[in-house]
Design brief:
The chain is an all-alpha fold. It has helices at about 10-15, 20, 25-40, 50-60, 65-75, 80-90, 100-110, 115-125. The protein has one domain (about 10-125). About 65% of the residues lie in helices and about 0% in strands. Helix 3 (about 25-40) runs parallel beside helix 5 and helix 5 (about 65-75) packs across helix 8 (about 115-125).
């Protein structure tokens, strides 16, 4: 069975069909993938549209706590400004035009302070 150990960052950002692999990920597998994304430093070099869209689509499928962690990874001090802006305004491929990832981030942030606390703790773990 394909899981977070067989899905590479390269496959995730280059293949829109990667969704067939990550759609069934557990919370822990998604957290592991986000750790890989952070460690890969993929956001430190400008990414083209298709790669951003694939990462946005991945983020859309995450539990809210992990969506906020992913947002923290994207907005890391070392990420390029272009990637941060592009990721923030990109439409979610699974939903079509005019539905941006920031709408889901805003929803997660306003839903519950507990979600933010969990996300902050997970992000701290990644950054160790």
């Amino acid at each position: 069975m394909l899981n977070s150990t067989t899905l590479t960052i390269k496959k995730l950002i280059n293949n829109p069909q990667a969704k067939e692999i990550y759609k069934d990920f557990t919370f822990d597998e998604n957290f592991e993938m986000i750790q890989k994304i952070y460690q890969s430093k993929v956001f430190q070099k400008d990414l083209d549209d298709s790669k951003i869209y694939n990462l946005v689509d991945y983020a859309y499928h995450l539990p809210k706590e992990l969506l906020l962690v992913m947002w923290g990874v994207v907005c890391d001090n070392h990420s390029t400004q272009q990637n941060i802006i592009h990721w923030s305004v990109a439409d979610i491929p699974s939903l079509g035009e005019n539905t941006q990832i920031t709408e889901f981030i805003a929803s997660a942030v306003t839903e519950s302070p507990e979600i933010i606390d969990v996300a902050n703790k997970l992000l701290e773990e990644i950054e160790k």
